[in-house]
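Q: Here's a chain of 253 amino acids. Please give me its 3D structure as tokens.
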Amino acid sequence: MYCYNSSPTITNAIISNNIASSAGGGIFCYSYSNPILENVTISGNTANGSGGGIYFNNSSSPTITNITISNNSATDGGGIDCHWNSSPTITDVTITNNSASSAGGISCWYNSNPTLTNVIISGNTATRWGGGGRFNESNPTLTNVTISDNTVSGHEGLGGGVFFVGSTPILTNVTISGNTASNDGGGIWCEWNSNPILVNTILWNDSPQEIYFSDTGDSNTITISYSDVAGSQDSIVTNDNGTVTWGDGNIDV
């Protein structure tokens, strides 16, 4: 499906087994396109570029509700890819078993600030960065989100759960667990002035570390409160390139 400066409503549909030569294997939205997607399955699509399942670019910010995005593949953003001021509202969505070189589940670039509520990002794979997702100069808001059992492999292999670059995400009631990186940042990877804020969040059984700061580039910060972090502060590797604000109410249990 192709949307250019348009905002259709798509309900009760299956979009599957399509191939795009560049971006948007299932859905391509460009230039202020803000469709409404409800009760849709997007599966088995391929993009030889960005957004295997869905691609948003140039201030396209759809409303996505009760959607399954699964088994799609791309170079960047196997499930969803958002570029240039594209900030979708994503609610009651499952993003699972997608694959990409970077960002197996969801990828957001350049002031793309999605709102994710009641979302599952699970079982996605990448071969370089961000098994579950990658956020580059974008500030997502995640509430009641599960990021689990995602994998990033290969000789780079950074950020099994999520990979943040120059981003300030807000995570509330989020579970990040069982994610794996072949190198560093099993749960969360931060670089180039990333400043995540975690409240009432669980980080557990991510390998090889729960949280990892890049040892190069601008310094990072992370603020954690009322959260359950396996290994407590010992599971956060800063590489002397940032600070940890360890707030009230944190536990390791």
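Q: Can you summarize the key feature?
A: Residues 156 and 189 are 12 Å apart (CA to CA).
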